[in-house]
Design brief:
Layout lengths: L2 E3 L10 E5 L5 H10 L2 E6 L5 H20 L3 E6 L14 E2 L1 E6 L1 H5 L4 H13 L3 E4 L2 H9 L4 E3 L20 E4 L9 H10 L4 E5 L4 H6 L4 E5 L3 H10 L2 E4 L9 H8 L4 E4 L2 H7 L3 E4 L3 H44 L5 E2 L7
Parallel strand pairs: 2-3, 2-4, 4-6, 6-7, 7-8, 9-10, 9-12, 10-11, 12-13, 13-14
Antiparallel strand pairs: 1-3, 5-15
Helix pairs in contact: 6-11
Amino acid sequence: MPTVTHTGGEARPSRGLFISWTRSNGRTLELARALDLEPVFIYLPGGLGLIGRYARQVRETRRLLRDRAPVHVMLMLPPAPALLALVGHRTRFGSLTADLHTGFFLDPKWRCARGPALRVLRRLGASAVVTNEYLATISGRHGVDSVVLHDIIRERGDGVRASSSAATSVLCPLSYANDEPVDEILEAARLVPALEWILTGEPPEAVRAAAPPNVTFAGFVSDSEYERLIRSVAGVCALTTRAHTMQRAGYEAFNFGVPQVTSDFSELRDFYGESALYTASDAEAIAAAARSLADRREELRRRVLELRPQRIAEQRRALARLTLMLHGSGSRDLAHGKGA
């Protein structure tokens, strides 16, 4: 369904817009709120498949920038073609910041566009937001200054206490993307029949057919239903096969004070420390970690609650730096892809 969603009502001057070419995105909503920007989601399928959709979204983005005349703009990438809305189009505003998700750097679908897109951002005088130092280093090599900023961390709960629930289930938020070890999760579930494994999202039929009886497919859930689920489980299983990736499911567990099993990568260990369990992406390792999660959930919950205030304080400093970058003085002329 075509989607152009924003909160500003009629066209009017706006100090800042956060534009994402998607139906919705939690990170966009939360960062926009923290930075006093208006989130705008643009998703307009066209008659020529992906090319038609991108062409319509370029036109809509340009129209929006012309009509709203924002002083500050943030743009979520990927998809990299969103930059076409700025290049070759005469637009003036005070600052441009790109929120560069891990997929922009590492997803095979976008990897070939990474270098050209970063060069365009440099020519436009843009800054960037990334989720870890590794990605910041890549941006810096291309002349794009960046701020490391995780998804918004806030205290949304103190997790599930062992005394209040047996918690014999584990929640696996999935989008069935190419970096999620779905087959291995299903086999791990088969190895641990004492746990119920709750998988969100809409799985392919082959995944449903391969699932053991202790797997429950919850489908797409509302925010309130997701909150109910995450508060009722032993913990969350948030896994990726792609190094240098921070998963939103892991951030959500952390916010709710719920322990998690996550992938054994340095960025994840640096951020979650001893509040999480780490595993390789093979079925036996995932199964062992899930058993340990159920056994140690109360200890891990306490570690989450101890660490979370520190991460919130770090984020407060990163947001202050980003605010200075975003609200820098002066305007940039982005006609024909030229910076100031």
